[in-house]
Specification:
The complex is a heterodimer.
Chain A: H1 2-20, H2 32-38, E1 53-55, H3 56-65, H4 68-72, H5 101-104, H6 108-118, H7 129-142, E2 151-153
Antiparallel strand pairs in A: 1-2
Helix pairs in contact in A: 3-7, 6-7
Chain B: H1 2-23, H2 27-34, H3 49-53, E1 66-68, E2 84-86, E3 104-105, E4 121-126, E5 132-135, H4 136-141, E6 145-152, H5 165-169, E7 172-181, H6 182-189, E8 197-202, E9 209-213, H7 214-219, E10 222-227, E11 230-231, E12 241-243, E13 256-262, H8 269-272, H9 279-284, E14 291-296, E15 307-316, E16 322-328, E17 336-337, E18 339-340, E19 350-358, E20 363-371, H10 380-386, E21 407-409, E22 415-417
Helix pairs in contact in B: 1-2
The chains are: A mainly alpha, B alpha+beta.
Chain lengths: 186, 420
């Protein structure tokens, strides 16, 4: 019954090959350039960060030039938009200080990513990579996270030690049809 | 009024003549109709090309959305923008929220992208075998699903300052969504084994991005282009949005244009908003718990007097379909099984009713529900007890607030927030 063995083998191979290939053949493959142009996600490892660099001093200039102060206040406090600088000093535990992005984020990449995708309002996406590095450095500097002369780039940015450290919750594995919290009746 | 009726009778007579002339045998019934005793005819709404092309609701129906929260974050804010608007649940019937009354929550105010659907694409890339870009036309070629799902904002918290159910619960709505399952698209792309999260991004100004588990994507996430029988409306993400059944509303990315498969939680801005110190609280910030509320009678409504009322309300859960709803009409001493109006759907508003004879005495009415996986809607006292913290009237339920909402009915039939 060698043919049966062959048939089973072919079915198994065919089955696994099918799972890997498209069913409908709808949609088009984007070019590498298209993906690069659209992919603005920057994750904690910083692998997507573009070349460029900036320091807090340069960032202070960008903050003025780009009109950030109009919404966020001259010093990062006091404008109509969310504050960018914590009023509480570094002696106050991080969870008791204000929930401010450049301060409480666990990764400096979160700050870079948001500036790049979401600022300035109505002119999103117009900042150059150097400007985003510089603004990130400035916001981290005014919150006492990095020194004024530290230069941030694709290498150094993901390594910035944020004050929160690892004092934040990682999320439980989500599974369908399970309670939102094990043992929680509500 | 009188002259209008006369006009109408004249019209009927003349049209009867025309009709008779045309059809020969049909004269008698038509003229009998015209000579029937006069009865009150309503004022007529004049037909127009516009009304024939696109219908309008009656001008007697005035239900509208309101900004949210009342007395909380100012809305419109310092930029003159309205951020969140709440649906008028007190006027709702059935389970579908009309698209024009569906709640809206935005990151940057009431501006929204004006997207030409012929130019819109969804790109899926990252940890996949084959990155793919889909046009709207591509998506409509693929097998579709149509499902009822609610979407609820994490900020849908009721407190003692709220007056109406629109203020307490108006940041939830339910629609019939049509689109392609995200799992269908991901299978086309071939998800690599190392992909554990996906990041979804919309085309609005802030390009909001949220990280979600791939397990959710493969389970029931919809890439929706239809809502309540028509294309999505701009406030709801036209031309394309994600619907993440049962997760807090912010995950249901509007104007979705890109999905990236990644190997870790990406902690982009929307995720930053979910950052918690306590893993238990973090877990409660994801999937919505079982929740219900009585919409009639509810805050600021007026009962005309003692007697029969069908109490009506909505129940929903992020954990699946609603399994049971109970109503108390005596402040929570006795709970009675409510009746479902239609079959409960997974992660959808479910309408319930309870037949009640009000004796005219002051009382408190409320509802509670359980879902298909056995989660039960708690009172605030129960939640405080679980977390072993002292209860007071300002107690804040961790995660999305799914606690019971009491309504107090005064002897004069006026209805008030029972938390006040």
């Amino acid at each position: 019954m060698g043919w049966l063995r062959v048939l089973v083998f072919l079915l198994l191979m065919g089955g696994s090959a099918l799972a890997q290939s498209p069913t409908y053949g709808v949609g088009r493959t984007p070019t590498a350039e298209e993906i690069r142009a659209l992919d603005i996600s920057v994750g904690p490892t910083g692998e997507e960060l573009p070349p460029g660099q900036g320091s807090a001093k340069q960032g202070a200039e960008v903050y003025k030039q780009k009109g950030c102060a109009a919404c966020h206040g001259a010093t990062g406090i006091g404008g109509p938009a969310p504050a960018l600088k914590s009023k509480a000093g570094p002696d106050v535990p991080i969870w008791q200080r204000e929930r401010i992005l450049p301060l409480r984020s666990p990764f400096a990449t979160t700050v870079w990513d948001y500036l790049n995708r979401g600022m300035p309002v109505n002119r999103e996406g117009t900042l150059t990579a150097d400007e985003v590095y510089a603004l990130t450095a400035f916001l981290l500097y005014i919150n006492g996270v990095i020194p004024e002369d530290e230069v941030l780039d694709a290498e150094s940015l993901p390594k910035v030690k944020m004050p929160i450290g690892d004092d934040y919750a990682s999320l439980p594995d989500w599974k369908p049809r399970t309670r939102r919290l094990r043992g929680y009746p509500y | 009024m009188g002259s209008k009726r006369l006009d109408r009778r004249e019209l009927l007579k003349s049209s009867a003549k025309v009709a008779g002339g045309l059809t020969l045998g049909a004269v008698a019934p038509a003229s009998a109709h015209a000579q029937a005793p006069a009865h009150e005819h309503p004022t007529m709404i004049k037909g127009s090309k516009e009304l024939i092309a696109y219908g309008e609701r009656s001008h007697f129906v005035t239900s509208v959305r309101i900004s949210h929260p009342p007395g909380g974050r100012p809305s419109p804010d310092a930029f003159g923008k309205v951020f969140h608007v709440a649906a008028p649940l007190q006027d709702s019937v059935g389970v579908i929220t009309p698209s024009s009354l569906f709640y809206v929550a935005t990151t940057r105010g009431s501006f929204m992208p004006d997207i030409d659907p012929t130019q819109h694409t969804l790109m899926i890339h990252g940890l996949v075998d084959r990155p793919l870009t889909f046009t709207m036309e591509d998506l409509k070629r693929l097998p579709s699903v149509t499902r009822l799902h609610f979407i609820e904002c994490a900020g849908n918290r009721h407190n003692a300052r709220h007056k109406t159910v629109q203020e307490t619960h108006g940041m939830t709505s339910c629609a019939e969504w049509t689109g392609v399952l995200l799992s269908t698209l991901l299978k086309e792309c071939g998800v690599k084994g190392t992909a554990t999260w996906f990041v979804a991004e919309g085309a609005e100004e802030v390009k909001g991005a949220s990280s979600m588990p791939v397990a959710k994507a493969m389970d029931d996430v919809l890439v929706a282009y239809g809502m309540n029988g028509e294309p999505l409306r701009p406030q709801q993400g036209f031309p394309l949005r994600l619907v993440i059944p049962g997760f807090e509303g912010i995950f249901s990315t509007k104007y979705v244009r890109r999905i990236k498969l990644v190997d870790r939680y990406y902690l982009n801005y929307n995720d930053f908003g979910h950052l918690d110190q306590d893993p238990k609280v973090a877990a409660l910030d994801y999937q919505i718990g079982p929740k219900s509320v009585i919409t009639y009678p509810s805050g600021e409504q007026q009962l005309p007097g003692r007697g029969f009322y069908e109490i009506s309300g909505l129940a929903w859960s992020g954990g699946g379909a609603i399994r049971s709803v109970e109503v108390s009409t005596d402040g929570g001493k006795k709970w009675n099984r409510a009746e479902f109006k239609g079959t409960p759907q997974r992660m959808a508003h479910t309408r319930f009713g309870y037949q009640w004879n009000w004796d005219g005495n002051e009382t408190v009415i409320m509802s509670r529900c359980t879902d298909e996986i056995g989660q039960a809607q708690p009172t605030r006292e129960q939640v405080a007890k679980y977390w072993n913290v002292p209860f007071d009237r300002n107690y804040r339920v961790p995660g999305l607030d799914n606690s019971v909402q009491p309504w107090r009915i005064a002897r004069d039939g006026s209805v008030h927030n029972g938390l006040a």
